[in-house]
Each structure stands twice: as structure tokens, then as C-alpha cells.
Amino acid sequence: MSNFRTLELHIDVNAANDVIASGIRKELDEKGLFLINVMASPGAGKTSCLMRTIDKLRDRHKIGVMEADIEADVDADKMEKAGVRTIQVHTGGECAMDADMTAAALREFPSDDLDLIFMENIGNLVCPAENDTGATINVAILSIPEGDDKPLKYPLMFKVCQAVIINKIDTRDYFDFDDDAVVRRIKRLNPESEVFFVSAKTGEGFDKWTDWLETQMNK
Amino acid sequence: MSNFRTLELHIDVNAANDVIASGIRKELDEKGLFLINVMASPGAGKTSCLMRTIDKLRDRHKIGVMEADIEADVDADKMEKAGVRTIQVHTGGECAMDADMTAAALREFPSDDLDLIFMENIGNLVCPAENDTGATINVAILSIPEGDDKPLKYPLMFKVCQAVIINKIDTRDYFDFDDDAVVRRIKRLNPESEVFFVSAKTGEGFDKWTDWLETQMNK
Q: The whole model's pTM is what?
């Protein structure tokens, strides 16, 4: 047993957000538009994983990207240079996208023109998991250097995601990362969750992920 | 020039928190107690950097640790096993410590008994930077695998920190990380900021950091 004292502090839930989010999801569904909320720590490789994913899917789908950042444009610039239809959202200090912001960003895309939108949420494993954005599915990216204990520390993130991408598998030799342990910890939080191991650097593992994603889109 | 549209969304500032934080800092100062708010992304190596730091300082200082987590006890367990006086704070979903939580946690330490407390904030580069906790100084840890662009994306974090520790320098060969660029980006946001390069794995670089820290304590 632990000897240290533990303080349990307050929790805050935003019910209005959930109502807006449900409305967005219904509208997306009616339009046949698939919105993927991509969440991860800073530096886990969200942008480079999205680049690889978009490269695999752009021949078959009309794709847009929402880049959410506190104030920078770094990732939107990269996307635009790669020829992807991009909108930059500045949250003005807010640590995650919420349903209102998502609705505002969706209005900027002529939606009859696209069938797949990736939302690159702010780099953070806490707040983005707390806000339902109205996305069709949620995906978390976790990278090998961050460690296999992240599902223990940020459980809500792994509860709300339908899939987890483990990135930077090319760096495995440098870090103690237990693949089996991370899968077990993710499945304990969410038994239905899919887990994909990839390297955005080498391209390894992306086929399984994009195959699964297209299956979800065709459901 | 960019062709993508940019939406500027709302900002929220908590003025009451700042008043409480100032009160905490004044009280700490009167007691000769030095509180360090340590912030970083998930997996940057907060706990292992703190372990190295505490090992170097524990002969000369009476040290305590506050471990802030959403709900896990993983890091507090490690600290306790290392014989460090530890208190676990569960923020109950909140993405960062604030001044109220800090005051509550400080009440758990008999303060005349300690001269140095490390607060390991929740892994996150956004919200912790927005809340003044009342700590004497703020320190950010950034790790090589996260990339040298983080000061561009999370500028507030680097503005509010007196020192930045760049961890995992043992993995330099595996990642494109430009030391000069990261220092330049940090100094542009905060010209007074100190930058230390360390490896919590090998112990390299910790002397300069702890020397600087003790100089700050003796000011």
C-alpha cells in the first residue's frame, strides 16, 4: 500500500458541447462526410502520419484537413505545400477543439466537395479527450519515445478512441517500449480499439491502418 | 502568402487564479521554501529528470515532490520507492494544476521541514502554461524526439519558463533536432531563459542544471 496522501480534486463536464457534437455527427452522416479527430502529444508525429495517410488515400477520396493550433501555422503550411485542402483553426489559447469550433471550421469547407476530413487536434493527451468535437471517429497517435505507460496516465484518451496508431517504430532499438503491454493497456480501457504500429519516417505499417479506415468509411 | 483561411477563436483568462498564485509565492518566499513547477509533454521524461536532479541535491536539501496526475499513481509510486517525500494530487480531469490545487497540496507538507519542492505538473504543453500555480520558478522539459519546432507551436510554455531542459540527448543520432534552432526559438520568446541539454538515461548534463538551480535558491 502507498504511504503518500492523495487529494481528489474537482471535475467539470460540458453538457452543452455534447448536444452540439451530436448534431454535427448527424449532419456529417447525412452528407456522407467522414471526419476523423486525430489526437496526440506534441511531437508524436500527427502531421507526418497524416501526410502518409493522405498520400495513400488521395487517389480514391476528396480529402480536407483542419489544422488546430494555439497560434502557429507550421502544420497548415506543410499541408498546403503538399497540395491538401487545408483550413487553419487558431483556438486562441484553448487547449483543444470543441464542437462549436468544429462546426465553425466545417462551414469553411464546401462539404459536397469532400468525403474525408482529418482534424489535427492540438498536441495534448488531456483536454482533446474531454471534448466531443462531433467527429465520426477519434484516433490517438502515441509514439515509441513517449513510453508504453501512457494509457495508464491518460486513460480517457484511450477510452474515447476507436483506433490507436503507435508511431516511430523505426526507433524501437533506442527505447524500452513493450508492444504487448501497450496493446493490453489500451484494450483494457477500450476492448474494441484497433491498434496499428507504423513508422511515418519509413512508411511501414500504413496499409493496415488505411485499409481499416476505408472499411469504417464504407460501413 | 498562405491561401488557407484562418479562424481566430476565443480566449479565456482566469484573473482570480493569479491573485491566489501571488499569495502563494509571497508565503513561500517568507518561509524560504522554493517551489519548482515542472512542465512537459507526456513522455518527455519529467519523472526521470526529477529523479536525477533529486539524487544530486538530496544531501544538501530537504526535498518534497507533488505528483499531479489526472488519476494515475505511477510516478508517485516511483518517487516513494526512491525515498522521496511525495504527495499525489489527482486533478479529477483538469488538465493542469492551478493555484488553488497548489495551495491544497502545500498544506499537506509540513513546510518548515522542507526547503525545496518539485511539482510534476500534468503532461501537457498547453494548459499548465496558462495557470500560474504560485511556484517560485517554472521549468519546461522538452525531449529530442518531440522535435525542435515545439517553441513555435506552444510559445506560451516557453514564455513563462525561466529554464528549459532538453532531455534525451542520448537519442540525437536518431532524430533531426537542431540544437541551435531550438535555443534561438526559446530565446526569441524569452531572452532570459536558460537552456540545459541533458540525458536522464546517462546522467549527462545535470551538473550545470543543478548548479543553476542552487544559484536561484540562494538569490
A: 0.86
Asked if A27 reaches chain B (Cβ–Cβ under 8 Å), the answer is no
Nearest to B41 among A12, A42, A87 (CB): A42
In a domain, A3, yes or no: no
Question: What residues 114-173 of chain A have any CB closer than 8 A to a CB of chain B?
Answer: 122-127, 130, 143, 145-147, 149-150, 152-156, 168, 171
Best mutation target among B95, B109, B171 (most A Cβ atoms within 10 Å) is: B95
Please check whether residue A114 lies inside any domain of the structure: yes
**Using the beta-carbon criterion (under 8 Å), do A93 and B143 form an inter-chain contact?**
no
Amino acid letter for position B44: A
Q: Is residue B11 part of a domain?
A: no
- Domain that residue A126 falls in: 15-214
Give yes or no for a contact between B83 and B63, defined as CB atoms under 8 angstroms apart.
Answer: no
pLDDT in tens, B172-191: 999 999 999 999 999 999 99
pLDDT in tens, A33-52: 999 999 999 999 999 999 99
Model pLDDT for residues A157-208, shown as the tens digit of each residue: 999 999 999 999 999 999 999 999 999 999 999 999 999 999 999 999 999 9
Contact B139, B163 (CB under 8 A): yes
Q: Report how far residue A120's alpha carbon sits from residue A117's, in angstroms, rounded to the nearest whole number.
A: 10
Instruction: Supply the pLDDT for residue B72.
Output: 80
Q: How many CB pairs under 8 A join A and B?
A: 191
